[in-house]
Amino acid sequence: MSGRVDEGVVRGVLESSHRETCIRGEDGKEYFAGEKFWQGYLLHWTGARVFARRLPQVDYDTGKRIIIVWPCGDEPRPPYMELYYNERLVKYPASIFGHNAINISGTVYNFSHLINENEAISEEEYLYRPALGEFAPSPHTGRFSVSDRARPYYDKFGRNFMRTIHVLHVEGVDTGRLTEIFSAEIDRIHRTPPPAGRPDKYRDFHFLRRSCTTIIRDGLRRYGFSAIRGVFPRDMFVSAAYEILGSRDHSIRARAYCMEQLKVEESPYSAATPLLNPLNACRVRKIYGARALKG
Description:
The chain is of the alpha+beta class. It contains seven helices and eleven strands. It has a six-stranded antiparallel sheet with strand order 9-8-7-6-10-11. Helix 4 crosses helix 5 and helix 6 crosses helix 7. The longest helix is centred in the middle third of the chain and has 17 residues.
């Protein structure tokens, strides 16, 4: 995690018993006692050191603001970039090739054909939002549903609970420049009028020319990683990792690894997509052989 501790964030141990659940703060006090915690957090992090805070969104059952919990990490961390390849969601045919996103020092830039999924959000929200309220799958279908506009279910909770995520972690890049590039892309998308009759869609989205993969690929090319290729999420990820891990710029430090899916009942196990470029089948073995930071 980024190590950023925002106002309203509590740090402590997640405690749960038959009586109640709370965060036992470092000051010994109980925080959020008697409030609703998502079961996914209790399954994976009971007894662990965590951060917690309230989100603006509310839980549909209680009407109270949702509590997000995420694991404490090593801090402070130097500026960094993380490129993500998210494995495919097996219950959604549109997810057949998986998904890419990019994290710039704790802000994740996400691009999609849906307007509300084109966003720049905190790392903890992208990875660890609970499956409550609008983030949850519909209790009727187990999937995305906006049939009730007053209580939409976007099925958009923490991606690490939904999928295994392949990560390219890079230090030594100009994170200010990368932030400018991808913030401008988000602004451009939200300035674009939607197609007639489809206010929920991004009009210029195109699977081959302007997608989650190609927007990030082209942004990294503009930054200077000119050899990155690919129009499909896993192939682009492997191409980027191959170029950056093999960079002769000694100021760059990088490693590739997998962030295994944190399995919860709301989501089946994700699945990796095949590599469509034969060169990448050879490259991928070298990429995951990089066990330590390069440099």
